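One record is kept unedited as follows:
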Amino acid sequence: MPLDSADRTRLTAVLAQAQERGWVGPQAIDRQIDHSLGFAAVTAGPPDHAVDLGSGGGLPALILAAAWPHSRWILVESSLPRAAFLELHCVRLGWSERVAVVHATAESLGQDKEYLAQADLVTARSFGPPLEVIKAAAPLLRPGGELIVSAAPNATPWPSQLLSDHGLSPDNLTSTSPKFHRSTRISDVSRGTLSGGA
């Protein structure tokens, strides 16, 4: 999924500032943008409502928000300076009505009734170990919602039991380059009901 050239130029400038602060990696920004677009390539389709965990300097959330201009986003960031940076640039990009930045831990968001089971998509990049990601993401997903997480080139699928314990389908690890862990919310663990209505 290509980005509009004007969007790519604007986002490159934002990410360059984040890179100067050490909030995104040292790799070429074009390469990091393309990696973020990989999330879009492996999803079922543009989400109505998405959440990005540990948004940091804006990857992949800012790229995906630009690629999907009709999607609503919540960017979750526990660092106040990074959250303020993201909020400032979302306003400058004209996204303040559809992209919100929440200064909080991802875990605390999943304990807030306002955000439970609302997301069609949850994304994460360089966020943490599988259990940490899964515990943070699962409560935010509606039944049928997708969890997409960047994976190392030599990654193996996450343990099926771990995913099942949190109401998620087995890891459909992509064979794409880059790779992504991919899972779907299939049940409401708190109520013990399947999304099909058992």
Remarks:
- The chain has a mean pLDDT of 93.
- The longest strand covers residues 141-151.
- The first helix runs from residue 5 to 20.
